[in-house]
């Protein structure tokens, strides 16, 4: 019985694979030929992705030139809670601490 089930399953998979391979015609990304969908992706990369990256780069550069004004410090009791010291430095500053942008529990460093 098991032999008959295995034979039927193998035959079904072989015929469906042959049928699927025959149905693919013309330029396609899965046809296996050199005329696949690479042309579409190449054009999308050149005419859409590259200009989009350039626009994002210009936007970042213009925003950086404007400068940043940091928000005023408000001592909310639910923020900047230190239940345990950090294992580096003085234990109060995070690993990627920026004294201009990141406040300590008692305020910005240069305001003291």
UniProtKB/TrEMBL annotation:
Localization annotation: Mitochondrion inner membrane
Report the pathway entry.
Energy metabolism; oxidative phosphorylation
Identify the keywords attached in UniProt to this record, alphabetized.
Membrane, Mitochondrion, Mitochondrion inner membrane, Oxidoreductase, Transit peptide, Transmembrane, Transmembrane helix
GO cellular component terms, alphabetically, are: mitochondrial inner membrane
* CDD domains recorded: Cyt_c_Oxidase_VIa (cd00925)
- Protein topology in the membrane: Single-pass membrane protein
Q: Name one GO biological process term.
A: mitochondrial electron transport, cytochrome c to oxygen
Q: Which Pfam families match?
A: COX6A
User: Which InterPro entries does the entry link to?
Assistant: Cyt_c_oxidase_su6a, Cyt_c_oxidase_su6a_CS, Cyt_c_oxidase_su6a_sf
The record's similarity note reads: Belongs to the cytochrome c oxidase subunit 6A family.
The name under which this protein is listed is: Cytochrome c oxidase subunit
């Amino acid at each position: 019985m098991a032999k008959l089930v295995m034979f039927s399953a193998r035959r079904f998979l072989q015929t469906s694979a042959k049928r699927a391979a025959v149905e693919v015609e013309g330029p396609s990304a899965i046809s296996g030929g050199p005329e696949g969908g690479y042309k579409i992706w190449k054009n999308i990369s050149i005419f859409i992705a590259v200009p989009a990256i350039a626009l994002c780069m210009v936007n970042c550069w213009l925003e950086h030139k404007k400068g940043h004004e940091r928000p005023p410090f408000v001592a909310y009791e639910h923020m900047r809670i230190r239940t345990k010291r950090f294992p580096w430095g003085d234990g109060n500053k995070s690993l990627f601490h920026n004294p201009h942008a990141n406040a300590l529990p008692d305020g910005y460093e240069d305001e003291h």
